[in-house]
Amino acid sequence: MALISSDRIRFPADPWRLVETSHAPDKAGALETIFALGNGHLGIRGAHWSPADVALPGTFINGFHETWDIKHAENAFGFARTGQRILHVPDANNYTVVIDGEELSLEGSTVLDYRRTVDFATGIYTTAVTWACRSGAVVQTVGRRAVGFAVRGNLALSLELTSDRMVSVDITSALVNRQDQPVEETAAADPRRSGRHAGRVLLPLQMDGTDGSLRMSWQTAESRQRVGVAVDHALSGGVQAVETMAGQDVSTVRFVLAVPAGETVALEKSVSYAVADEGEDLDVVSAAAAALRPVAEVFADSASHYGRYWATSDIVVGGGEELQQAVRWNLFQLAQATARADVAGIPAKGVTGSGYEGHYFWDQEIYLLPYLSYTNPEAARNVLLFRHKLLPLARVRATELSIDGALFPWRTIGGLEASAYYAAGTAQFHIGAAIAFAANRYVWASGDHTFRDNQARDLLVETARMWVSLGFFGADGAFHIHGVTGPDEYTAVVNDNLYTNVMARFNLRAAAACRRDDVSDEERTVWQEAADRMHLPFDRTHNVYAQDNDFMTLEPWDWNTPRDKYPLLLHFHPLVIYRHQVLKQADTVLAMFLQWQEFTADEKRRAFEFYDPITTGDSTLSACVQGIMAAEVGYPMEALEHFTEAVFIDLDDSHNNTVDGVHIASAGGIWSSLVSGFAGMRDQGLMLYFDPRLPAGWDGLDFQLKMRGGLLGVSLTHEAITFSYDGPATVSVKVRDTVVTVGSGCPASVPLDAREALVH
Amino acid sequence: MALISSDRIRFPADPWRLVETSHAPDKAGALETIFALGNGHLGIRGAHWSPADVALPGTFINGFHETWDIKHAENAFGFARTGQRILHVPDANNYTVVIDGEELSLEGSTVLDYRRTVDFATGIYTTAVTWACRSGAVVQTVGRRAVGFAVRGNLALSLELTSDRMVSVDITSALVNRQDQPVEETAAADPRRSGRHAGRVLLPLQMDGTDGSLRMSWQTAESRQRVGVAVDHALSGGVQAVETMAGQDVSTVRFVLAVPAGETVALEKSVSYAVADEGEDLDVVSAAAAALRPVAEVFADSASHYGRYWATSDIVVGGGEELQQAVRWNLFQLAQATARADVAGIPAKGVTGSGYEGHYFWDQEIYLLPYLSYTNPEAARNVLLFRHKLLPLARVRATELSIDGALFPWRTIGGLEASAYYAAGTAQFHIGAAIAFAANRYVWASGDHTFRDNQARDLLVETARMWVSLGFFGADGAFHIHGVTGPDEYTAVVNDNLYTNVMARFNLRAAAACRRDDVSDEERTVWQEAADRMHLPFDRTHNVYAQDNDFMTLEPWDWNTPRDKYPLLLHFHPLVIYRHQVLKQADTVLAMFLQWQEFTADEKRRAFEFYDPITTGDSTLSACVQGIMAAEVGYPMEALEHFTEAVFIDLDDSHNNTVDGVHIASAGGIWSSLVSGFAGMRDQGLMLYFDPRLPAGWDGLDFQLKMRGGLLGVSLTHEAITFSYDGPATVSVKVRDTVVTVGSGCPASVPLDAREALVH
Question: Touching check for B495 and chain A: CB below 8 Å?
Answer without folding.
Answer: yes
